[in-house]
Protein: Sodium-dependent transporter
Organism: Agathobaculum hominis
Amino acid sequence: MEKKQNHFSGQLGFVLAAAGSAVGVGNLWRFPYLAAKDGGGLFLIIYFILVLTFGFTLLTSDIAIGRRTQKSAIGAYEQMRPKWKGLGILTFLVPVLIMTYYAVIGGWITKYAVVYVSGQASAAAADNYFTSFITSPVSPVVFALLFMGVTALIVYNGVQNGIEKVSRWMMPVLLVLVVVIACYSLTLSHTNADGQVVTGWQGFLYYLTPNLEGLTVQRFLQILLDAMSQLFFSLSVSMGIMITYGSYVRPEVDLNRAVNQIEIFDTGVAFLAGMMIIPAVYVFSGTEGMGAGPSLMFVSLPKVFAAMGRAGTAVGILFFVTAIFATLSSCISVLESITANCMEIFHTSRKKTVLVLSVIYLAASAVITLGYSVFYVEVMLPNGSVGQLLDIMDYVSNSVMMPFIALLSTVLIGWVMTPDYVIDEMERNGETFRRKKLYRVMIRYVAPVMMFVLFLQSTGILSK
Ligand code: PHE
Ligand code: NA
C-alpha cells in the first residue's frame, strides 16, 4: 500500500490545486447566466453574502476534516464516527457520478477550441452547429475520450508531480486570460438595428445594477436558492473532493488563509467571467439572449464572437482555452477524489487504481456522450426539465445528493462531533480562527435549515 507521502508542497500549491477544482464551468458559464437571469447586482450581493457565511462554513469543514483525518471521504467519516461511514460512501458516490459526464463537457469545450484555432469561427455560429455536433456518433466521443485520457494521465503522475504541477501554471494563466477578455469586453461598442450605439460599459452596468423590477417574496426566495446551489457547486464542497485535497495539506499550513484565498479565487473568477460575458452579449444581442441557460456557452457566445468580426476568432480561442483549463483542473480533482478513496479501500497503488478507473470512465464517458445519439433517452426530471443521460447524472449528483449530503454532514459536525472538531484543526498551529462564532451558528443552525429547504426545492418536493 502506498503510504501517505502524498502532499502538496505547501500553501500555494494547495491553494492553486483547490482553486483549480473550484474554478470550472460553474464560474465561466453558470454564474454569468444566473446573474443575468436573477437581477444582476441583486444576485451578486446575495451571492457574496452567501460566500462569506455559508460557503465559508462548508469549505472550512471539508478541508479541516480532510487534514485532521488524513483520509478521503469514506475513511474520514468512518474515522469520525464508524456509524456514519454510510455518509462517507454516499459522499464518495457524488464524484463517481460526476466523473461519468465531466469529461464529456470537457470534450465539447476542446472541440470548440479546435474549431476556433482552425479559423472556423463562422461555422460555430451557425444555428444548428452545437446540436448537430453533440448528436453525431463519433466526433464528440473522440473528444470526450481525449479529455478523459489527459485527465487520467495527470492524476496518474500523483499529487505533487501531476495535480500541483499542472495547477501551478494553469491557474495563473487562466486568471490572466479572464482579465484580458473582461477588459476587452468593456471596450466593445456596436450600433444596433435601431441605430443606437450600445457599449460594453453599459452592459457592465447592467450586470452590476440590482434589478428589483417585479421582485416578490417568492422570486427573492428563488434567487436565494439559485445562489445557494450555485455556491456549493462552485466551491466543489459536499462531494468529498475538498476532503481529499485537505488530506494532502501539510500540518504547518495555515488553513484560515488557505480557505480565504480559495474563496477569493473562485468568486473573483466568477465575477470576472460575468464581466467578460455579460457586456459582450449585451452589446451584440441585447438582454434577451442572456438567460439562455445551457446554450449560452456553445450557442450564444459563438454568435457573439462572430459578430465581433476578425477579433472574434482570437477572443474565441482565448475563451475556449480558458474554459479548457478551468474544466481540466476540475476534472482532475474529481478523478483524484475517486482514486484516493479507492486506494484507501482496496489498498492498491495509485498507478494501478488510475489505470482501472480510466478503463471504466473511458467507457462511461462514451456511453454518456452517446446519450445524445445512439443511446438517446428523454426523461422528465422531478424539477420539471427534460433531460438526456448527462442531465440525469447531473441532476442526481448535484440536485439530489449534494444538498442531502451537506445536510447530513452539517448535522454530523454541528451536533455529533460538535464544531470544536473543526475549530481545533483550524487553530492547530496557534492560528486564530476569526469567524469562529459565525462558524458555530452556521454549522449548527443556519446551514442545516438552508440545506433542507434547498433539498426540498431541488427535488421538486416543495413545489408539489
Ligand atoms: N466547482 C466546479 C465549477 O464551478 C464544478 C465542479 C463540480 C468541479 C464538481 C468538480 C467537481 O465549475
Ligand atoms: Na467554481
The pocket of sodium ion (ligand 2) is lined by residues 22-24, 26-27, 234, 266 (CB under 6 Å). The chain has one domain: 11-458. The radius of gyration is 21 Å. The CA atoms of residues 132 and 372 lie 10 Å apart.
